[in-house]
Amino acid sequence: MTAKVNLGTAAYDEIEEINAINQKLLQQLNAQTLNQTEIKEIVSQITNEHIDETTEIRLPFRTDFGRNLHIGKYVFINSGSMFTDLGGIYIGDHALIGPNVTIASVNHRIEPEDRRNLDLQPVYIHDNAWLSANVTVTPGVSIGENAIVGAGAVVTHNVPANTIVAGVPARIIKTIESKGEHK
Length: 183
What we know:
Distance between the termini: 33 Å
Strand order of the largest sheet: 2-5-8-13-16-18-19
Helix content: 10-25%
Largest sheet: 7 strands, mixed
Number of helices: 2
């Protein structure tokens, strides 16, 4: 599903109001020495959702909007990750997000006269998925349960559950044989 947001509309103005608040919170978050409880309190304000005590977030933490970022339980987000979440980013339980990962749910339009307007497509990172260092996930992509995305991969298509993908663009390189339930 693709939604559209046009520059100069009431919807865009509302986004900018939230951005003004969240950019100050992000500066506060990334400019201090904070413990995990304090980090999760500020990220909860940015997302407007409770961040579970089982989740760990390393700084710096970056988002362009914040309110459409949804983080599950037992999630680990490493330092330097960027969440372009206006279109929605859903991170399932037990997911691992490596350092400098970029997840984008927003695209600009192709037509030059419409380029400043936005197309929004949600991204889903399902339970127990692992995004290695420097991965880029593009709008509209779903990363399946237990999937692994190799370091530096650019994910432009859905990743099936229980697979390992790598490369630019990411391609399936292996199927994961499970030995039972994850903890």
